[in-house]
Amino acid sequence: MISYVIPTRQRHARLRDTLARLGALGDHAAAGGAEVVVVDNASPDPVELSPGAAGPLRVTVLRMTDNIGAAARNEGARAADPASAWVVMLDDDSYPLDASFAARLARQPADVAAVSADISLSPGPTGARGRERGGLPEVFVGCGVALRRDAFLELGGYDPEFDYYVEEYDLAARLLASGRRVAFDPGFRVEHAKDATNRDIDLVMARLVRNSAWVAQRYVPEEDRRAALREVRRRYAAIAAREHALPGYAAGLAGFRWSRICQKRTPLSRPLYDRFTGLQAAREALARERERRRFWSAAVVDEGKHAWVVHRALAEMGVRVVNEWDGPDVLVIGSMSPGPMLDATEKRIREGRCRVIAPWTPVNDIFLPRADRRAA
């Protein structure tokens, strides 16, 4: 059995639409059934649902007296049916496209505590589509992830201090430190409407900066901590300038400065940190691809989140990095975030100019020709 957990605040029409879409998936009999737990984060107008709002799925509504942000997911997991092995975290504007993933959760190895979805964004005003831009190979995105309920509760769920944004990185680090793994299931497909209602860009930026710096301060090995904090400042300064959110950026830096001393240092070991950043995944995937068909030069293209990981993994292999137009043996996508990586891989393969490699598995196998997939 699974439990869908959905926090919401004053977006009643969006919530009703999401519940209807969950109901349209059926009763999830193949997975042992499903339920929905809605956590109303102190909406000024409390959530009221009509019978059958989620079709055959039972819906429980919890009302919080205060807006507790992402910690509402903790309350939802605690209130879930004890028979549920997995809690599937959604937003009130995200939903799975089919229920087939639910039966596959039971076949996950025992050390897999989280299964990330392939999250697509609904078409915007221009009709353009794409994927969610967050996450890493072993860091999930909160609007589309299945978590083992016992592991989630054992670790205390999301840290309430984060409110919203980057709380998934904090929990993922704790999952890895506890000896567990995060997996990616390309067949677990989630649609995210990304409703901008009630979103304040400066507040979002402030939390992104402060919370990202908290994660670096807590978990990055000491020899890399200062560099990681500099990268947080560099990355979000560029984003804030582009999004006209410089006041939020300044507020986030100030928030980190006064709270820095309160962050307990529990740095990950070097092997765990290499998994957390995606470096180990890149090493394994690129080595596998080189064994499959040798290459000696590569162009790193479509650089994005943790592009440094791709460059370091190639350097460790002795692969020469060249310009895209200098005739490289392969193109390697320069983002470790699954959504942008998948989008860029698909686009580059359609162009067909050169062999394209995504920098971590199992993504490369998705794009293998059928005959090569069977051989692999």
Low-confidence blocks of residues: 370-376
CATH homologous superfamily (4th level) name of the largest domain: Spore Coat Polysaccharide Biosynthesis Protein SpsA, Chain A
Mean pLDDT: 92
Structural class: alpha/beta
| Oligomer category | single chain
| Alpha-carbon distance between the two ends | 33 Å
| SS element count, helices | 14
Radius of gyration: 21 Å
- Indicate the proportion of strand residues: 15-25%
- Second rung of CATH, namely the architecture of the largest domain: Alpha-Beta Complex
* The CATH C-level class name of the largest domain: Alpha Beta
Q: How would you spell out the order of helices and strands?
A: EHEEHEEHEEEHHEHHHHHEHEEHEHH
Any idea of the CATH topology of the largest domain?
Spore Coat Polysaccharide Biosynthesis Protein SpsA, Chain A
Helix content: 40-55%
- What global shape is seen? globular
- Biggest β-sheet description: 9 strands, mixed
What is the number of beta strands?
13
Report on this model:
The protein is 41% helix and 19% strand. By secondary structure, the chain is of the alpha/beta class. It folds into three domains: 2-192, Alpha-Beta Complex (Spore Coat Polysaccharide Biosynthesis Protein SpsA, Chain A), CATH 3.90.550.10; 201-271, no CATH class; 278-375, Rossmann fold. The strands form two sheets. Strands 1, 2, 3, 4, 5, 6, 7, 8 and 9 form a nine-stranded mixed beta sheet that branches. It has a four-stranded parallel beta sheet with strand order 11-10-12-13. Residues 370-376 have low confidence and may be disordered.
